[in-house]
Amino acid sequence: MNRTKDSSTSLRIAIQKSGRLTDKTVDLLHGIGIDFDNYKRNLMVKTRNFDVELLLLRDDDIPEYVQDGVCDLGFVGANVTRETQADVTVLRGLNYGNCRLSLAAPKSADIRTADDFDGKKVATSYPNLTRDFFGNKGIDVQIVEISGAVEIAPQLEVADAIVDLVSTGGTLRANGLIELETIMESETELIRTNHELSPGKKELIERFMVRMDGHLQAGKSRYMMLNAPKGSVDEIKSIIPSMKSPTIVPLAEDEMVAIHTVVPFNELWLIMEKLKEAGASDIVILPIESMIL
Ligand code: ATP
Ligand code: ZN
Question: DSSP 3-state assignment of 148?
Answer without folding.
Answer: coil
